[in-house]
Design brief:
Length: about 500
């Protein structure tokens, strides 16, 4: 009690001042309304100081308050502001199947867990490589280490043709390019590209030629890490892949298959390859060239024999004798009309030189039908092959593919004699293959569609054209056929 003044008989009651505590904000969820158990006189704190309760919950001081929810005794951490954990880092990933980036692991980065370039696997058995670290990306879930580096070698086979250009963007693994050529000589592939090394190996018939690994030399250590022997590294600065080539000498017509194998153990940037094949040799007539004019003597086109014989001894001789040193006897030895009657067209076509001293042979066949040795009546491309046809067409293909161009040259003339339309359609199927609906019956190797530079077909030749009335009729067909195969002959009228 306290007197109002010394003279007054009255007293007043003085209330004690309320205790002040520190008002707190909880760091975990930014909630407020908390106070310290200690008063402001029992612990000295400033606004934004970070304190901790007995359960290690963090708070910051936001002022003072008389009431609130006590958090108990707090201790000063010596820090200001709530602790802000760093943004977690994850492993950034590149998907092996398509080299797409932007993926991350579910695991945060831990020292030594995964190394750069390591090959990892997600729960769906999809391969990735570690390409760095990132705070954000598309998570692929938990990844496991395969214990290997770089993407697995992926194998791909691509069919190309001589003269083609093939452009490649990002890839990894092994790509094999298959192409065919029956010619002999140098086969080459021109290479252009960027920096990431790759090896280009040209293969034919157990022989090969390679560039080794060409590219920029800053990737040498990556190649060594991928297991490439140091002796196979042919990089430099500037990149040796920017302009390069690989060449192989193809010494025989068969086999025709040539392969370019491109090996890219690192994720490749880009390259282009151009496939160059030897030019086919032109058909030539020399003084040792045997020319057989085969006449189908089975009976249905007999009126054509005499005009052919007269043509061979007359206008054709006048045109071709220049190639036989203008020697009439030599021409007569090597150029002959020969008859045969079993109608096996392709057996005649594969005949080799038989005259003494002959070095190559042109087989010119005049025929109107092959029923029933090759074609039954009402033949269609769906008709099954006869055994004789299968044997003869395979024999002809082998003769063409296993000998130099020009050693044997077949030329087929379909003669119109009666209503033998089946034979014309049959020959066209042999010439063009399945494009006429032959299906599996007349697909390669049972047609000649891939050998158009070595054989020629002509249709609708008239039978029995009198030599006296038109001496140039059959001669012009023969000269045109030879010229179509790469020669250049002009006959005087």
């Amino acid at each position: 009690m306290k007197k109002i003044n010394v003279r007054s008989p009255y007293y007043i009651e003085v209330a004690p001042k309320p205790t002040q505590y520190y008002a707190l904000q909880k760091c975990e969820d930014s909630s407020i309304g908390y106070i310290t158990e200690q008063s402001i006189g029992e612990i000295a704190l400033d606004v934004d100081d970070r304190v901790q309760d007995s359960s290690t919950n963090d708070y910051i001081v936001v002022g003072t308050a008389e009431t609130g929810t006590s958090v108990g005794i707090v201790t000063d951490t010596g820090e200001v502001g709530c602790f802000v954990p760093p943004t977690p880092l994850y492993y950034s990933l590149t998907r092996c199947s398509d080299s797409i980036t932007g993926f991350i692991s579910a695991q945060e980065v831990v020292s030594g867990l995964f190394n750069y370039g390591a090959r990892v696997l997600d729960s769906n058995n999809v391969y990735y490589t570690i390409s760095g670290v990132s705070e954000t990306g598309t998570s692929v879930g938990t990844i496991t280490n395969t214990g290997q580096y770089n993407c697995p070698v992926l194998e791909d086979i691509i069919d190309v043709n001589c003269g083609d250009t093939h452009n490649v963007a990002t890839d990894v693994g092994v790509v094999t390019y298959n192409f065919d050529t029956n010619e002999t000589g140098n086969v080459s592939v021109d290479i252009t590209g960027s920096d990431v090394p790759a090896k280009f190996t040209l293969k034919w018939n157990n022989t090969q030629s390679t560039t080794n690994y060409i590219g920029l030399d800053t990737y040498d250590q990556d190649l060594l890490d991928a297991g490439v022997p140091i002796g196979e590294i042919a990089t430099s600065d500037p990149s040796t892949k920017a302009s390069n080539s690989v060449t192989l000498n193809k010494t025989a017509s068969s086999p025709s298959l040539v392969q370019l194998v491109v090996t890219a153990p690192l994720i490749n940037d880009q390259y282009s390859v151009v496939f160059n094949c030897p030019e086919p040799a032109p058909i030539v007539i020399e003084e040792t060239t045997q020319i057989n004019i085969w006449f189908d003597s089975s009976g249905s086109m007999d009126t054509t024999l005499a005009p052919l014989q007269a043509m061979a001894a007359g206008t054709l001789k006048n045109c071709l004798i220049q190639f036989y040193d203008n020697d009439s006897a030599k021409y007569d030895q090597y150029v002959k009309v020969r008859s045969w009657s079993d109608e096996r067209t392709f057996d005649r076509a594969l005949q080799p030189p038989t005259e003494a001293g002959a070095t190559n042979c042109i087989n010119i066949i005049f025929q109107d039908e092959a029923n029933s040795i090759y074609t039954p009546t009402n033949w269609t491309p769906s008709t099954l092959r006869t055994a004789a046809y299968s044997t003869d067409i395979i024999g002809l293909r082998n003769a063409l593919l296993n000998n130099p161009t020009g050693y044997i040259t077949p030329i087929f003339f379909q003669v119109q004699a009666g209503a033998y339309l089946d034979y014309k359609n049959f020959l066209k199927t042999v010439e063009f293959g399945a494009t006429l609906g032959g299906g599996s019956n007349y697909d390669i190797p049972y047609n000649l569609s891939d050998l158009s530079d070595r054989v020629k077909f002509y249709y609708d030749v008239q039978q029995g054209i009198s030599y006296a009335s038109n001496p140039d009729y059959y001669r012009d067909f023969i000269i045109q056929a030879i010229n179509d195969l790469g020669f250049s002959i002009t006959c005087a009228p």
